[in-house]
Amino acid sequence: MKKLFFLSLICLSFQMQAQFGKNLFSKDPIINLENFDKQRVHWGYFLGFSSFDFKTDYKTPNTDIDVKGNTGFNVGLVGNLRLHEYIDLRFEPGLYYASRTLTYKQFDNDRDGLREVKATYINFPLLLKFSSLRTGNVRPYLVGGVSATLNLSSNSKSKDDNLQQKFRVKPWTQNYELGFGVDLYFEYFKFSPSIRGVFGFNDELIRDNDPNSPWTGNIQSMKTRAILINFTFH
């Protein structure tokens, strides 16, 4: 899957290079899909990468946990509603595969000191897209909004906790999202690479059964942070 995805990106980059050389940097570029953005509603899909992290606050200032975000994979759909010449409302439900490595520095063995927290997210973002004036076949934009995320791997119903090597979080979280991207107009489709940050509103950690647990006892809150890199096709 990864090899196929990288191969597709390489082929697309060659096509973009040829397209840009012909239509972007020339004196009189050929305008592609001139009326595409005038549609009231249009659809698309995205593929991409992500890195999820935790922002951790402690009851007693400390650096108990070292959190490392690992690269994950994203896929989803895009629904776009035109509100104004420069403003669109977007719904981008997607599936996100993510993982984080948590290292507890007070332990000197991997059984107690290491937690691999894997997650399968279904994300439901509602976003406003603010586009600039189109120049040739290029149109930058800003995007922002709110989202609700369901974690299918939360372990929230498990009675076991970190004492049995089971790290638990709440199944639902709410976030705000901010980012930017660029619409690139080709002959037959619109391609939109973008980068976006995700910032969780609420604490999602489920504490261990022991209130003095060395894994969760000193944590005031643990909130999601993520960077999404998506490649959208319309």
Automatic annotation (TrEMBL):
Keywords assigned: Signal
Lineage of source species: Bacteria, Pseudomonadati, Bacteroidota, Flavobacteriia, Flavobacteriales
Organism expressing this protein natively: Flavobacterium capsici
Pfam families, A to Z: OMP_b-brl_2 (PF13568)
Ranges of residues in domain Outer membrane protein beta-barrel: 39-204
Signal peptide feature range: 1-18
Top-rank taxon, per record: Bacteria
InterPro entries per record: Beta-barrel_OMP_2
Name by which UniProt lists this protein: Porin family protein
